[in-house]
Amino acid sequence: MTPVPLWRRYARLFGPDPAADITDELRFHLEAKTDDLISQGWHPEAARKEAERQFGDLRTVRRIGRQMGEKAERHKRLTDHWTDLLQDVRYTFRTLGRDPGFAVVSILILALAIGANSAVFSVVNTLLLRPLPFSNAHELLWIAPPPSGCGWSCATYSADAYEEFRAHSRSYRDVTGYFAFSTPDNVRLTGRGEPEPATSIDVIGNFFEVLGVQPALGRLFSPDEGRGTQPVALLSNPYWRREFRADPAIVGKAIELNGTPVTVVGVLPASFDFGAVFSPGAKVDLFVPLNLDQARDWGNIVTLLGRLKPGVTVTQALDDTNLVSPTIYQSVKHPETLGVYKGALIPVPLKDYVVGKLRRSLVALWFAVGAILLIAGVNLSNLLLGRAVARAKEFAIRGALGASRGRILGQLLMESLVLSMAGAVFGLGLALTLIAWLAHQGSLALPLLNALRIDGQALGWTVLIAVVTALIFGLLPGIRTVSGNLQAVLKDTGAGAGLGRKHERVRNALVVSEVALACVLLVSAGLLLRSFLKVLDVDLGFQPDRAASIKVDYDDRAPSDDASVAKRSAIFQQILARVGALPGVEAAGIADYLPLGPNREWDTPVPQGKTFLPGELPDPLVYVITPGFIRAMGIRFHGRDFTWADGPHSERVVLINASAARIYWPGEDAVGKVLMRGKEEDHVVGVVDDVHEENLEGGSGSQIYYPATQQGPSGAQLVVRSSLPAAALGATVLQTLRELNPKQPAAEFRPIRSIVDRAVSPRRFFMLLVAAFAGLGLVLATLGIYGVISYGVTRQRPEIGIRMALGASTGRVQRQVLASTLRLAFAGMLLGTLVALAVAKVIASLLFATSPWDLPTYLGMAVALLIVATVSGYIPARRASGINPTEALRSN
Q1: How far is 454 from 474, CA to CA, in rounded Å?
Q2: Neighbours of 797 (CB within 10 A)
C-alpha cells in the first residue's frame, strides 16, 4: 500500500480534507482489488484496468463522496466546535475558581490597562477621529491670517472686510463670524431679583445657519435683527435649563439684560456648545446678533468662518482667497483695518483649528497607553507560563488520555480570553469613571470635553483590544506548553520540572521587554515633567499669588466723551478707595483685559523723531488701566505709575514694556520719550516688565498701557492683592461693590493663579496622564520582575538546599538571586534606553526648554528601575536564603 505523505498528516492540523480522504479511500480499494487480481495470475497492468472497470465511474464516485464527506464534516465541525466551546468555558471557570488569586491578579492587571486604553481612545476619538458636532463639518473652514504676533486683533477682521470677503469669494456657500472680544460675565440678567452674571456672544446673524445648527425651540435670528431693529437673544440649552427651568414658554417672552428688555426667539440644542469648540472651558449662556453697522468702525473685531460649496476643496478655497484678498483691500471702505492682511487670508479646516495643536500630544498619549497594554500583556503571558508549569502533569495526563495538542492549546486560549474579557468589563467601568470625571473638568482648557463619552466605537475598541490581547499574549504560553514532549513530564520528579526549565528563558525575555517598555514610559514622563516644570518657572512678568480679580459693572454714559471720562474716573476712584480700605488689601487696580486672556492692538505708535518702513514696527498689545493696577498685579517697573491727576485735559501719558522700549529706543532709557499716534503725543512715564499675554511658552511682544482716565476701556476687571485668601475676601469685595452699585452681579472672585493654571492646563493634563501611565507601567514591571524571580527561586529550591547543605552562606544565596534580578533589569534598561532615545526625538516638539537627551531624566529612570529591581528581587532572595536544606531535599 502507498503510505500517506508526511505533509498530509500535518496538514490535518488545519482541518479535515474530504476530497483527499475520498481519494485515499478509493486508492486503498483499487490497490486492494488490483493486488487480489494479481494474486490470481493477472498481469499488473491488466489487473489495474480490471479493478477500475469493476469499480465503476471513479469521477462520479469521487464527487458524490466528496459532497457527502463535506456535509458530514461541516455538521460534525459545527457540533464539535460548539460542544468544545461550552466545555472549554465551563472548564475554564472551574480551573480559575480553584485558583482565585491568579484570576484576581490577572483581571486587575488587564482591567487597569484596558480601562486606560478605552478612556484614552475615547479622548482621541472625540478630539481627532470623530467629526465636529455640526452638519457636514468637513465643509467648515476657519479663515485666518498667518501669525503676526499682535494678538487677537491680527486674527480678526473689520465688519467691512467681512462683508467684502463674503460678497467676492466664490468657494463658499456662505461666510459668517462672531465678535472675538467677548469676556466672561459680560452681561447681567436683571428684573428677576438679584442681578445674575451671564456670558453673551455677539454673532453675525447667519452664524447658526452656516454651522448647520437648528434650534431646539423657537427660531434663529432673522436678517433684520442683525441691524439692531429689535433686541433679541438665543439661549444656550444649559442656561435655559439652569436659569429658566427648561420652560418652553420662554420663547417669545422678554428678559432683561443690563436693564434692557430682550426677546428670546429660541433655545439652542443641547448638542451645541460654543465654548467647547471655539473657546475651550468657557460657558456661554446666550447669543445676540452682532450689529455690523454699529461695529463698522471698531476695527478688527470679527472672526471669519465659511462653509464650502459642495465639491470645493480646501486648496481651491485657498486659491480663491488669494484672488479675493487684493480685491477686498481695494474696495473696502476702511482699508486701514486690513493693513497686515493684504493678500494673506488662509482658510484651514475648522477641525484642524480646534484640535490641531493637540494632535501630537494625543498621539503620544495613545502610544503611552499602548505601552501599558503591552506591559500588561507581558505580565499575563508570564502568569500563564508560570501556571502552565504548575499544570504540566495535568496536560500530560490529558494528552495520554487522547487529547490533541490543538485541543489543549484551545483550552489555554479560552482561559486567556475569559481573563481578558473579564478585565475588559472592569476596565470599561474604570474608563466610564475617568471619562465622566474629564467631561466635567471646567478648569481644563481642552476643546470638546463635553462631548466625551463611551460610544459604540469605544466599546468596539475595548472588545478588540481585549480579544487581541488574549490571542497574542495567551498564544505564546499555549504554544510553549504544547510544543514539548508532554509524556516526558510524567517521568520528571517535580511538578512540571521539565517544562519549568524550558520556560525560564522565555519568561526572562518577557521581563526584559517589560522593563524596556517601562523605561520608555519613565523617560517620556520624565521629559514631559521636566518640561512642565520649566513652563512653571517662566517669568510671567507679574506675581499671580495673593491676587484675585472680579468683573466690575459700571455705567459711565454721559452727554459727551469728556463727561464720560470724568464720570468713569470718579467711579473707578471711588471703587478703588473703598476696596483698598478693606482689611488685608495691599493694592487694588482696574484693567479692561488681564494677561493670558483676550487682548487687542490699536494703531501702531511711532517714536517721535524717528522714521520706520511700513511693517517694520510691531503692533503692540494694548491695556487700559487705572492707577494701582501695576502694583496689584505685582508687575515690576521703573519710572512712575499713573495717577488720578493724569486726566483727559492733562499731558497724555503711557507705560510701555521692556520689549517695546528696546525696539523704539535701543540702548536708551525710554522714560521721558514720546510716542506719536497720528498727531497725538503720548509721553512715556514708565517702563514695565514684559508680561506673557497669550501663553507661558511663547515670548512677550510689545505692550502699551494707557490710563483709564484718558482712554476708554473695553470693560473693567478689578484686581486685588491681599494677604487674605481669595475665598475669605470675595464676599466682602462683592458686598462693597454692591454698596456702590446695587446692579453689580454676583461675579466670580477668581484668583489670578487660576488664570495661569488654566493657561497651562492642557500641558498639565497630558503630563499627569503620561506620568500616571509611567507609574502604572513601573508597578506592572515590578510585578513581572518579582514573579519571575520568585518562580525561579521556587524551581531552584532543591538546588539551593543542596548548596546550603554544602556550606553556601545566606548572604551568598541572596547575592546570587539579586544578581540574576539585576541582570534582567540591566538588559531591559539597555534596550529601553535605546528605544527611549528614539521616542524622545519624536516627542521633542512637545517639550519646552528641555532637551530630548536630558541626562537627569535618564539617570532618574535608571535609579527608579534599579530600586524597583532590587526591591523586587530582595523578597525572593530573603525567602531563598531561609530555605531549610533538609526540607528542600525531602520535598524533592
Answers
A1: 27
A2: 19
Cα–Cα separations (whole angstroms), residue 673 to 39, 662, 670, 702: 128, 13, 5, 16
Q: Which residues, other chains included, contact 3 with Cβ-Cβ below 8 Å and sequence gap of 6+?
A: none
How far is Cα 684 from Cα 655, in angstroms, rounded to an integer?
Answer: 6
Instruction: Report the relative pairing of strands 717-722 and 674-677 from DSSP bridges.
Output: unpaired
CA gap 450, 439 in Å, rounded? 5
Q: Is 733 helix (H, G, I), strand (E, B) or coil?
A: helix
The Cα–Cα gap between 188 and 553 comes to: 9
How many angstroms separate the CA atoms of 697 and 690, rounded? 13
Report pLDDT for 495: 44
In terms of DSSP H, where are the helices of 235-337? 237-244, 274-278, 314-331
145-159, 428-442, 644-658 — which one is most confidently predicted on average?
644-658
Distance CA 791, CA 282 (A): 55
User: Can you read off the three cell numbers belonging to residue 724?
Assistant: 487674605
Residue 809 CB-half CA count within 13 A: 3
The DSSP-derived string for 365-399 is HHHHHHHHHHHHHHHHHHHHHHHHHHTHHHHHHHH
Q: What is the 3-state secondary structure (H, E, C) of 425-476?
A: HHHHHHHHHHHHHHHCCCCCCCCCHHHCCCCHHHHHHHHHHHHHHHHHHHHH
Q: How far apart are CA 612 and CA 606, in angstroms?
A: 8
* pTM for the whole structure: 0.79
What is the distance between the alpha carbons of residues 204 and 103, in angstroms, rounded to a whole number? 60
Q: Cell numbers 517702563 correspond to what residue?
A: 687
Task: Give the model confidence (pLDDT) of 556-605 as tens digits.
Answer: 877 777 788 888 999 999 999 999 999 999 999 999 989 888 777 777 88
CA 530, distance to chain mean position in Å, is 19
End-to-end CA distance of the chain: 51
Distance (Å, rounded) from C-alpha 87 to C-alpha 300?
Answer: 73
Sign, CA dihedral 92-93-94-95, equals positive
Q: What angle do CA 15, 18, 24 make, to 5 degrees?
A: 115
* CB proximity list for 666: less than 8 A, separation 6 or greater: none
Cα separation, 305 vs 250, in Å, equals 30
Residue 546 in grid coordinates: 495673593
- SS3 assignment, position 653: strand
Write the DSSP assignment of 80-137 as a string of letters. HHHHHHHHHHHHHHHHHHH-HHHHHHHHHHHHHHHHHHHHHHHHHIIIIISPPSSTTG
Spatial separation of the C-alpha atoms in residues 790 and 441, rounded to whole Å:
43
Distance from C-alpha of 500 to C-alpha of 80, rounded to nearest angstrom = 33
DSSP-H helix ranges across 137-178: 159-168
Q: Which helix (H) or strand (E) holds 286?
A: strand 286-289
DSSP classification of residue 252: T
Closest CA to 299 of 603, 671, 599, 717: 603
Instruction: Give the residue among 122, 860, 815, 102 at the shortest CA–CA distance from 427.
Output: 122
Q: What are 341-399's pLDDT values in tens digits?
A: 444 577 889 998 888 888 888 888 898 899 899 888 888 887 777 777 666 667 666 66
Burial (Cβ within 10 Å: 0-12, 13-18, ≥19) of residue 209: middle
- Residue from 278, 287, 283 nearest 257 by CA: 287
